[in-house]
Amino acid sequence: MAIVLGIETSCDETGVGIVADGRLLGAALSSSMDEHARFGGVVPEIAARAHLEAMVPCVSTAFERAGIAPSDVDAIAVTSGPGLATALQTGLAAAKAYALAWNKPLYGVHHLAGHVAADTLEHGPLPPRSIALIVSGGHTSLLLLSDLARDPIVHLGDTRDDAAGEAFDKVARILGLPYPGGPAIDRAARDGDPTAFPFPRAMLDSGFDFSFSGLKSAVARHVGQGGPAVPDVAASFQEAVVDVLTRKAVRSCREHGVDTLVVVGGVAANRRLRALAAERCAEAGITLRIPAPSLCTDNGAMIAAVGDLLIAAGAEPSRLDLSADPSAPL
Ligand code: KG4
Ligand code: ZN
Asked: How is the cofactor bound (predicted)?
């Protein structure tokens, strides 16, 4: 059994998690989101400085919560990309320092593999084949998965413009709601009518790519025409996004003969997405796996989980000159 320390710093979250044998032992998280809010988006240099300040306290807290000592750790896993370059470099520098100081192997991890592996901490190993819908501030991807540690991940579709979370954030700004916009729209939508405005559902029945910029423009045009009720716009916008996401995800499972759908990433915390995905997967006979919201958003445990899988699969560690790859391909 290997004990893996995972470090995640690809965006604004400093995440540290300790995983042993597919089980989460302890974790700590520090977010610099409050510092970015007034800029309406994550400022890379501010994020990098915040990672630097939060890293050692987060690592100490994770060890305390796990009830183990650094000498118990067998390996260090760290996000090497994709993400913000300066933010990634902070995590890599810390992970390399720990690997050197403790004389432990280092594993560079792809951020999206981490999002998928997060679910295994709650629901156990993935079946031999599954499809993942990753919906976050930076990504909207449908991925065909087999063995996460051994086989390549197959990209089925991606967003052609805005990521789903980015669309939530931009529409929230149009509606005068706070940043990050996803949780704000989720809340506002509870009092709204999702059928109030028939916003466009781009590329609904064609292929597996996504496009959300037309929807965002449609909301902006609508709001510009004079003060519609915010809850109705929020609910109608949210419905358009989750309708497209769930329809395409279910269709991709059908077309690829896959019976397990994993939904992860920050937007997977959305209440309506969780409800509609459950409804449509049940209708289609698909097993739906969505982890708790704390495992959906960026965290260190998901990176440790991939490290754990890599070690179990006998993968070679990364070299200590491993560099950040801000636009790492899958
Ligand atoms: O995965 P994540 O924490 O970071 C990235 O890797 O991007 O995702 C953050 C994104 C933000 O765009 C945020 O607005 C969105 O996830 N988000 C939500 C909800 N909670 C977070 N979107 C819709 N509904 C939510 N409840
Ligand atoms: Zn992420």
From this structure: Binds 1 Fe(2+) ion per subunit.
